[in-house]
Design a protein that fits this description.
Layout: H1 2-13, E1 22-27, E2 35-41, E3 53-60, E4 66-70, E5 76-85, E6 104-106, H2 119-122, E7 124-126, E8 130-135
Parallel strand pairs: 1-8
Antiparallel strand pairs: 1-4, 2-3, 2-5, 5-6, 5-7
Length: 138
């Protein structure tokens, strides 16, 4: 009996829970150069600020539509912002008025009008494998 219990414990020790899969499709990428930078947030506090993000992903641009599969996020509520770092300088470039000079996008395809979007508009529930599509705003 003790051997059986030890066997069961060993089997469960080697089974690790897998995180859900978030597939992110980014459309309307142009020009074909630089990198796409993806930031993930899970709270309204410091939304769109570097200190507020919980994850950051970068992928080189190779075509107009690209896909990233994220497997290191737990279930929860998140919002995503992306930008196309066309010149690969590691910054989201803006003009002297603060208007973006590089393409960008948000989860739920929020299109801000006169200011940055709010977390509540970009948030989504990640409670199962999910596919999100974000269209770049050029």
């Amino acid at each position: 009996m003790n051997s059986f219990l030890l066997y069961i414990c060993l089997v469960f020790a080697f089974i690790t829970p897998t995180n859900p899969k978030l597939t992110l499709t980014v459309n309307n990428i142009k020009p074909i150069q630089g990198h796409i930078v993806i930031a993930v947030f899970n709270t309204e506090t410091n939304f769109l600020k570097e200190e507020g993000r919980i994850k950051k992903y970068t992928m080189p641009v190779t075509k107009n539509t690209q896909e990233l599969v994220i497997t290191d996020l737990p279930y929860g509520e998140f919002a995503i912002s992306i930008y196309h770092d066309e010149n690969s300088d590691g910054e989201f470039n803006r003009n002297y008025l603060g208007i973006p000079k590089e393409p960008y996008g948000f989860s739920n395809n929020v299109k801000p009008r006169f200011s940055a979007p709010k977390y509540k508009d970009c948030k989504f529930l990640f409670n199962e494998n999910k596919t999100l599509t974000i269209n770049m705003i050029n």
